[in-house]
Amino acid sequence: MIPVLTIDGPSGVGKGTIANIMAHELKWNLLDSGAIYRAFALAASKRNIKIDNTDEQLKLASSLNLKFESDPHKNKLSVFLDNIEVSAELRTEETAELASKFAMIGPLRESLLLRQKKFKQPPGLVADGRDMGSVVFKDASFKVFLTANVEVRAQRRLKQLHDNGIAGILSQTLEEVKKRDERDASRKHSPLIASKDALVIDTSNLTINEVVAKVMALVKT
Ligand code: DC
After folding, report:
1. Is the CB–ligand 1 distance for residue 181 below 6 Å?
2. Which residues contact 57 (CB under 8 A, 6 or more apart)?
3. What pLDDT, in 10s, does the model give residues 162-214?
4. Which protein residue's CA is at the shortest distance from atom 7 of ligand 1?
5. Of 55, 88, 138, 181, which sits 20 to 30 A from 171 (CA to CA)?
C-alpha cells in the first residue's frame, strides 16, 4: 500500500509550505492540486474559453499538456504548460480567482481527477488542496486540515505574493481571500470541508516548525 498524507485547508493557510517540507522530509512525491486548477484556468483564459462553456473545458482538460518538476535543492515546484514555464504566472491573484471559478464546475473537477490520482506513486504521496482527504484520496492513511483566522491568512498570502515579486496590499488581499473562501466552501461540488477523520490544526498562532512537528507526529504514529 502506498501511504498518502492529505493536507487540505483554505487559501493562505500555509498548506503549500507544510506539504513541501513534509514531502521533502519523508522523501515522498508531492501533489499541489491547486496548481492543476490554476494551470487549467491559465490555459483556458489564453484560449478564451468561457466559464459557461463546459464542452470546451472538458476538451482542454483531457488534452492539457502540464508537467511538474521538483527541485529538491530549492524546495520548489516548477510548472510547465505546453513546455513553457508558468510557475510565476500561476501565483498571481488573477489566476487564483479564475481557478476558484473553474473549480466550481463538477464535470471539470471529475475530468481532472485521474491526473491527480496518478501522483500516488511509491514511496508515498503528500497531496495538498481543498478536497484531497474528502474526495480524491478518501482512503488516505493520514489526513490533515489546516485552519487559521482570515487576517493571518491574508497576511501570509501577501507575503507569498511579495516573495514571488508580485505587488499587493493587505486590505485588497483580505477581501480576495474572503471571497475565494466563500466560493470554495459554498460550492456544490467537493466544497472545502474537513473530513471527519482529519486532524484539524489551527495554525493562527503556530510557527511553520510547530505545524510540521504536529503533522510529522501524525505520520509517525
Ligand atoms: O490552493 P490554491 O490557492 O493554489 O488553489 C487555487 C484554487 O483552486 C482554489 O481557490 C480552489 C481550487 N482548488 C480546488 O477547488 N480543489 C483543490 N483540490 C485545489 C484547488
Report:
1. no
2. 44, 49, 102, 105, 107, 108
3. 888 888 889 999 999 999 888 888 989 888 989 999 999 999 999 999 999 99
4. 100
5. 88
